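TIGR00266 family protein, pasting as requested.
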Amino acid sequence: MTSHEIDYEIFGEEMQYVEIELDPQEAVVAEAGTFMMMDNGIAMDTIFGDGSKQNQGVMGKLFSAGKRLLTGESLFMTVFLNNDYGKKKVSFASPYPGKIIPIDLTNYRGKFICQKDAFLCAAKGVTIGVEFSKKLGRGFFGGEGFIMQKLEGDGMAFVHAGGTLARKELAPGEILKVDTGCIVGFTQDVDYDIEFIGGIKNSIFGGEGLFFATLRGPGIVYMQSLPFSRLAGRVLAAAPQVGGKQKGEGSILGGLGNLLDGDNEF
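C-alpha cells follow.
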C-alpha cells in the first residue's frame, strides 16, 4: 500500500467525530479546522496540498496545493504524525450536524468523487484533487455542486454529510435527479451532468435552483438532507438585522412592531 494503513472508530449520533489510531510513524492529513484532540506524542505540521507528492520536490508540492486552490480550499493541510513508540489516537470532528462516512478506497477501485467541502481527513498518501469535467456547461451552470473533488489511493478517507445521510445504489442506466448541493459523493462509474430545470414558473417561483444534477448508474451515490449552504442561508435569514434589530418572527406585528417600539427615528 502507498497510503498509511490506519484504524478508526466513529462516535456520536448527530454531531459525530472520528477517532483515528496511528501506529508509530503513521500519519493522517486533515482539513484545517477539523482537529478535535490528540494523544501526547503526535506531531502536528502544516504542509502544502495533501502530502501525497512530498517526495517529488517543490513542483510536486506546488501542483498538489494548486489543485486545492481551484476548489476554493486552503493551500495548506495539516498532517498528524505519530512520533512515539506506541499507538496514539487523534480525533477530528464534524463541522456541523450530520454523519461521517468512512471511504475505503480499495473498495472503490482507488477513486471516489465527492463534494468540494465534504472531505474531512484521510490517511497520508491519499491524493485529494479536482475532478475535471469534459462538459464546459457544468462549470458555468453547475452552481455549488459542480466543483467536485476526487480522492485517489488505496487508503481510508472520511467525508462529512449534513443532516440525514442517504445511500442509493444505481443499476446500469438508472437515473437519479438530485439538487446539486445535496450530493455528498459517488463512485467513479457514475456519469453525472447538470440539467436545466426549465419553465419560467419553475425558474422564478419554484424556490429551488435553476439546475440540478443528473446521475446515471451503475454506481453508488451518497446524498445529504442538509447542505451547508441551506443551513447558512437559514441562519442568516434568522439573524438580527443591521443595528441589532430583530426581524420580529413569532410576533403578530412582525416588522410593524419594530416601527412602533419607540426606538426608530423618522
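Note for the archive: The chain has a mean pLDDT of 77.
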